Amino acid sequence: MLDCLLRHGIKVSYSCKMGTCQACLLKAEGCELPAGTQTGLPKNLKLENYFLSCLFYPDSDIKVSQTTTSSLFKKAVVVEKNKFTDDILQLILEPLDVFEFYAGQFVNLKAEGETVRSYSLASNPNESERLELHIKRMRNGWMSNWLFDELLVGDQVEYQGANGTSFYTKDNSDKPMLLIGTGTGLAPLLSIIRYALSVGHRGEIILYHGTRHATGLYLNSQLIALADKVKNFSYFACLSGEIEFDGTLHGRANDLALQKYKDLTGWQVYLCGEPEMVKKTQRCAYLAGANLDEIHTDPFNLRDLRKRRRK
Ligand SMILES: Cc1cc2nc3c(=O)[nH]c(=O)nc-3n(C[C@H](O)[C@H](O)[C@H](O)COP(=O)(O)OP(=O)(O)OC[C@H]3O[C@@H](n4cnc5c(N)ncnc54)[C@H](O)[C@@H]3O)c2cc1C
To answer: Cα(143) to centroid of ligand 1, in Å?
Structure first.
């Protein structure tokens, strides 16, 4: 449906086109929605007949509306913008309304016009209602460059969420956790770690953060300090490019983690960031004994604009 609407010049927000980001929400009027078109949506949106237009393949006429999607967005004020590195930004937003989320979820930010992109929350839901986001600047990327260069402290932005089913719950506080993230895939893992420690998680917490170059290990010293302080937390920094300083492992984070942790029976596994890594590692973790419903995935699916003309 999304492709059809776009082909006919109808403006619909979208980003990943895979049912992950939930940016292309529409509302169906007076019809039954096929199974799978509401995957991952919160209960209230399901009951209101919202669905993901990228997952809907209609076989008869259907009436849809998008007018009400604006009511799903709330406002927040930009209170801080800090650069972790030249191309990774920490953005802190103060919501104007009550905001609740689970550790590991993401929000959708709306820019001027209807551009919507998803960003994971790094904040601890136990400590702050603020939204801490980590944004990677993408070459020619519309939203990430707008957030870096145009959005100012004091400005208001619209956000929708929190979304996503890859989150931590207290019921698992005795279980060991393996968290693997690439790039800004660290953000939701940080939220999970912060929250898990604040609720007294007793199982082991093992974090593998991978990037190509050392600049991508943007919280290296803070994570080393945390691992020194907290007995059940271990941190492994992994570089797939050249090793630029001591203390890092050489190779891809997912390969290194699964080489070391060969039996994942009874583990909670969290995989965030680069979609191919997430997909491949989900399969490997399952083969290593983790239950499918204990492997939580958050792939940062991007719009691949390389094959298309930019608008
Ligand atoms: C659930 C979810 C959570 C996310 N969380 C975060 C987060 O916490 N932090 C974060 O920085 N991002 C996150 N993302 C990605 C984010 O939503 C945007 O897609 C990203 O910021 C790019 O948006 P943009 O508008 O700048 O780029 P767009 O204008 O959408 O362009 C995408 C850019 O990437 C290039 N590109 C597309 N596919 C590829 C590819 N496979 N390889 C190389 N280049 C490619 C395009 O050519 C273009 O330059 C998340 C995505 C999802 C779905």
So the answer is: 9
